[in-house]
Amino acid sequence: MTLLEKARKGEVTEEIRKGAMSEGISPEKLLSLVASGRAVIPKNVLRKNVRIVPIGEGLRVKVNANIGTSRDRVDIEEELRKLEVAVKAGADAVMDLSTGGPIDEIRKLIIERSPVPVGTVPIYQAACRAVERNKSFVELTVDEILEGIEKHARDGVDFMTVHCGVTREALEKLRLGGRLLDIVSRGGALMAEWMEYNGKENPLYEHYDRLLDIAREYDVTLSLGDGLRPGCISDATDLPQIHELVTLGELTLRAWEKGVQVMIEGPGHVPLHQIETNMKIQKSLCHGAPFYVLGPLPTDVAPGYDHITSAIGGALAAMWGADFLCYVTPSEHLRLPTVEDVKEGVIASRIAAHAADIARGVPGAREWDDRMAKARKEFDWEEQIRLSIDPEKARELRGSSPPSDEKVCTMCADLCAIKTSQKALSREGKK
Amino acid sequence: MTLLEKARKGEVTEEIRKGAMSEGISPEKLLSLVASGRAVIPKNVLRKNVRIVPIGEGLRVKVNANIGTSRDRVDIEEELRKLEVAVKAGADAVMDLSTGGPIDEIRKLIIERSPVPVGTVPIYQAACRAVERNKSFVELTVDEILEGIEKHARDGVDFMTVHCGVTREALEKLRLGGRLLDIVSRGGALMAEWMEYNGKENPLYEHYDRLLDIAREYDVTLSLGDGLRPGCISDATDLPQIHELVTLGELTLRAWEKGVQVMIEGPGHVPLHQIETNMKIQKSLCHGAPFYVLGPLPTDVAPGYDHITSAIGGALAAMWGADFLCYVTPSEHLRLPTVEDVKEGVIASRIAAHAADIARGVPGAREWDDRMAKARKEFDWEEQIRLSIDPEKARELRGSSPPSDEKVCTMCADLCAIKTSQKALSREGKK
After folding, report:
1. A residues 366-405 closer than 8 Å to B (CB)
2. C-beta separation of B203 from B146 below 8 A
3. In a 3-state reduction of DSSP, which class is residue A183?
4. Bridge-partner residues for A325, per DSSP?
5. How far apart are alpha carbons B390 and A145 in whole angstroms?
6. What is the 3-state secondary structure (H, E, C) of A67-116?
7. Burial of B12 per CB tally in 10 Å (0-12, 13-18, 19+)
8. Which chain B residues have a beta carbon less than 8 Å from that of A315?
9. ipTM above 0.90 for this complex
10. Is A180 within 8 Å of A232 (Cβ atoms)?
11. From the list A181, A412, A420, which residue is nearest B376 (CB)?
């Protein structure tokens, strides 16, 4: 039985117990969320010692870090360092999106070493394998594509992105025009290319039941990819995007029927005033399934700073219902991220996630901030640093500019408002 | 006559003409906004060649950068470099908050060299002058405090923060308790200390008419400070904060009566789900006067990254009505910002402001993003870099990791979705 099926039967498994404890909620509450599909616990049946990370409605917002090589940049050690840095910075999951070098080896190493759930996009594997065999991706058979997916499941992948919603009908909508950037999802573009070349329906849609059988066998959580996500704010919330979301909602129900856990992937590039609508329509069309968003980026003009842009969009998205934020690094749109970029990306997303947790009323979220406020009031700098989202960075900045009075900092120095007001408010009135 | 009075008379001054042009709106529209107090143009009557920066309802959201020394860190050349870097990064205004070293000299140099409007908090001046004379700030007379303010006006300051709303009644509310951090505004804390020591009302409140006379004489825009702003999310939207805002609303009307332009300063630390309310209550209580916000920071736990936290809060605030964002740097809560911090802070705030501009429907805002999307579609990297909010940074990141195919980048390399999908969608169907 899968985790979903066990939850439906009311079985309080170790996953439910551990997950509930980490969320600060009762096992019954988490059980009910998982049973109804409103939360998922990505965990391949073959994986041992992986952290239990429940993702979904009302739970702490989780952060994913994408790592992995590209054809132009292959350094296995660097990718393993990215894994380490991402987890240390607080990523709740990582995706290995390697498309260059010995990708089987890289994936196995990442799964072996990752304490957190690992996701992949198996279609990249198929594309790379095709190239190895001197074939084009479009020449792959349906069986070969599904074999690539099964291979990832067998390797122990906990969740995988499958672009099932890029249907022929969806591509027709896309052809109606109106987009500035048609497809910006690698998986979506590959599927579109395959479909156009072969004149056939998307095999992940047409043979969705075979995909579900694989996911069921290994208890892999499906992350239904948004192959038609907007790649610029001008394309946001348009017909192709919403058409795909409608399809993903239907596929959600079919996955649940087979006992397979599902989350939905979402945009992308969305202006601020459309984020709330995007979150609500997803929850509605996809029957409450967890929403896993990339960004969203509320502006297209900040390459080099897209971790910030994404933190803005992600915070809003999570406040309004997104459950899982895929980080974006400062390098997005420019290059494969460095190890330092990975850290910056994770921290920015965690800030967004935590700000949203407070707004969502997640148990324990506000307490963290209140402890920080208390430490500030007491000029307890060690505690302030300890409580910081990145204690190393906080210590480094403070240490680089030591104040003459160790109680304060060099920004206000002797004019520290907290000090002044404590003096003022403790007076007994007129001298 | 002040700018406000001329606008009321329907006079299309050079300021209105230039301001309207820079905003892409008609002079009549800007005239009406200024006349009604819903927009301000900070410009001291003595200042020549200062950029015209209209701030207010429906206008492009502006960004301010705070610079200036503290007792623990005095380096005039560094502060002038901060000015230069802030303006180059796109700050629309700067505030000189110097409290250490030869602050008169620093202020004069900054005003002399700044192409954008300059603001100050004259009460800091008074506090520092008192120390120079071996007096405590609390021993200053009302006349001495007002002289300090007039001195700044005479020096050509375009806007100044005055903490008039920290009244005895407000402090009583504060004493009712409930706050984790009582006062985190330097100016607010100084006023509270003075009031408690002297057993008197806030002189900036009690002698508000004298303050208005100074502002009127030099046509200085008053920025009514939020001395009781929340310093942690636990204190947000509470009685002292809102009590002060009510007072500032009353003082707004009194300023307008005297022909003085006014904006209102706002929080501070505010959780995401309270930002909309905070913006709307300000616009309502303060009769549509422009809202100038510091942050808001939707979480307290990210020292070292508060430019990101602030960008999240600032974007939401500006979408919902804030007109002017005071940047926060990565060093906030830890040290006086460095030159590099100043740049990071300005860029983060500009991203927030621009994202909000799109949501506000500011003329021309979306077009910037659309040009970027078009350049991405066309693999026009020079144009992408040119259009970036920080072209140097974008060029540096891309240049550090050159792709083997110059059309793409090293993130996706040969699997570039835009390339793949253009190929796919241009096919004529089945082979």
Report:
1. 366, 368-370, 372-374, 376-377, 384, 387-390, 393-394, 396-398, 400-401, 403-404
2. yes
3. coil
4. A63, A293
5. 41
6. ECCECCECCHHHHHHHHHHHHHHCCCEEEECCCCCCHHHHHHHHHHHCCC
7. middle
8. 272, 298, 312, 316
9. yes
10. yes
11. A181
Terminal-to-terminal C-alpha distance of chain B: 76
Amino acid, single-letter form, for residue B89: A
Return per-residue pLDDT of chain B as tens, 431 residues.
Answer: 999 999 999 999 999 999 999 999 999 999 999 999 999 999 999 999 999 999 999 999 999 999 999 999 999 999 999 999 999 999 999 999 999 999 999 999 999 999 999 999 999 888 888 877 888 899 999 999 999 999 999 999 999 999 999 999 999 999 998 899 999 999 999 999 999 999 999 999 999 999 999 999 999 999 999 999 999 999 999 999 999 999 999 999 999 999 999 999 999 999 999 999 999 999 999 999 999 999 999 999 999 999 999 999 999 999 999 999 999 999 999 999 999 999 999 999 999 999 999 999 999 999 999 999 999 999 999 999 999 999 999 999 999 999 999 999 999 988 899 998 888 888 644 43
Q: Of A70, A197, A347, which has the smallest distance from its Cβ to B305's Cβ?
A: A347
> What's domain B3-360's architecture?
Alpha-Beta Barrel (3.20)
Q: Angle, nearest 10°, between helix axes A208-218 and A239-257? A: 50
Model pTM greater than 0.95? Answer: yes
What residue has token string 């439906």?
Answer: A8
Instruction: Centre a 10 Å sphere on the Cβ of residue A195 and count the other Cβ atoms it contains.
Output: 25
Beta bridge partners of B73: B70
Q: How far apart are the first and last CA of chain A?
A: 77
Tell which B residues from 264 to 303 touch A, by Cβ distance under 8 Å.
Answer: 271-273, 298-303
Place of tokens 């573009």: A189
- Tell me the three state secondary structure of residue A127: helix
Sign of torsion over alpha carbons A113, A114, A117, A120: negative
Domain residue ranges of chain A, discontinuous segments joined by +: 3-360, 365-430
